[in-house]
Amino acid sequence: MGGKRLWAASLVGLAVAVSPLSAQVPAYQARATQFADKPAIAVGVAWYPEQWPEGRWDTDLAMMKATGFNTVRIGEFAWSRMEPSEGKFDFDWMDRAVAAAKRHGFMIVIGTPSAAPPAWLTQKYPDTLRVDENGARAGHGGRRHFSFASARYRDLSRRIAVEMARRYGKDPSVVGWQIDNEVGPPSFDAESVAAWHEFLKAHYGTIDTLNQRWTTQYWSQHYNDFDQVPLHATGQQNPGLLLDFKHFTSATWTDYVQNQVKAIRPLIDPRAFITTNTMFWNAGFDHFQMHRDLDIASWDNYIQEGRPDWVANGANHDLVRGYKQRNFWLMETQPGRVDWAPVNRSLDPGQTREMAWQAVSHGADAVLYWQWRSPANGQEVYHGAVLGQDGLPNPIQGEIAQMAKELTAAAPLLADTQPVAKVGMLFSYDSRWAIDLQRHNKAFDPIKSFTDIYRPLRTGSQGVHILSVDDDLSAYPLVVAPNLNVITDAQAKRLAAYVRAGGQLLLGARSGMKDDANALWPQRQPGPLADLLGAQVEQYYALNEPVGVKGAVNGTASIWAEELKPAAGDVEVLATYDNAGGWLDGKPALVSRKVGQGRITYLGAWLEPSAMRQLADRLLGEAQVQPLVPNAHPDLEISERAGKGKRVMIVINHGGEARPLTPPAGAKQSQGQWKDGQMAAHGIALFELR
Prior knowledge:
Oligomer: single chain
Shape: globular
Distance between the termini: 62 Å
């Protein structure tokens, strides 16, 4: 019971500060590790020595070295091998695996194994197993089948993590620790329900406050006690309850990870990082909150069906970098293909390499592949691997080796540099969740809306940083907040201060509608920013067919459109709707107002791509944000990393044909496939800038 009390107290602390300001982060070197004698860029692979005869290990490690790898990740799925029965530990095999990796000169990242508990644990303690929303308890044999709220499971996972840290924590070859693996699924077991009630008590203080914030007089939902509040993630539930469920899962997963972080930190080298690897656009919890007390962010980048949308994929890299506003690790990526999409098409020749370079251009200081060798059996035998099950290279190995060689050669140039951007985009998990819960138009996907706005800003500026609403915005002449549906009064005041100090702020459709309890603001959109804008949303409309937009931008809007109504005399109407006979005809679609030294603009429509490009060009011009290479071909991704007196331009041709490129004046080519003014198909080139 002591563990339960400690866990509940920890959750209470997280509940009180669901959306605090980002903590001030200490200086952190922009390189793969904080070890001065280690490579600045890590390139490597997930290695599972427990799956193979020990006599094969040296052969594998030598082949990894020949491929150009300098890093291995081990341990994250080996709990049953490390602790074959309760309290009986066997690390002899792992001692030899770590020693073998060191002998071959590898940096090592150790993963704690709590994503996949051993059979003895789930058999003896079935209460640790996850329960779904329908009340079905998970069985053994998969992964992530534990309850994130189970105090017993936390105790057992912390114990194995501590044993690992005691054994390997001071080894200078162990440069980092990954907690668990791709956390995410919640649980609805009795402990989770009890934790939910404690969370609500801490967050609201009194049941009367909860009733007021959730408007529980609607449909007779009124509660007399916190213990009456059901735990739900879906269904026809109160919007405040459903958003607070996301707050609860964020707090619970954050505390689950910190349970291990706090236990191992005193036992490991202070230079070693601690992280957890996350998945793309994962909606299960607030990643900004999760990473607040981790050293770095890391994520697993997989391309579904082998058809990369490089701009949208780059946005995800920028989001991950944004969790800490520092460089990150690409902890897993595919060697050609995945095995979980409807059609698991492999990436085309050249694309595996270019996607690795894309990660680096957006701030990755490490690229690790999953996995080294196809397993003899298991749920992921069809997944791409560097080697086949016979221990011989798959066709993709040559391309990966080329990338590893290039990246290693570029490491001195890339060391201590970070991505450069003058445009900031605000990503709000609360807003994403709130819109997803009540889309009003089934086609209103908040991620697609975000990337549709990101696309012309990224290609037009050639650098975007994605930020939390609570981050410092002062370094960005232009800040764009697509669909900032949920906003607090404190956040609105910070955005207003940014504008008055000279910033240019664009709010997208549906912004300023809700507070952090998912309740409507008493004033119409954009809620607490309406006075700053000098205008409001008079009415919003879900669209089943496009409507015209004309003025400063010309084209059409689809999915969503809002009628804007100026209230202040100095509001400029930049575009109106062309919707003969409809509610929107002639009504403002885009308004702008100069306030203090800056400007706030509100876009009330989901614009089609050409119209969004026009607006992006206008905003970038007004903010005086210039690209490195004007009028670059759409297949070319251009990025800059800078630091320690260095400026590096990375150019990637994502197309299947050569494309023209004129580098900036004085640029010096460092490496790559640029010749006679042409970027080769799927080519990479690095330039040192003056």
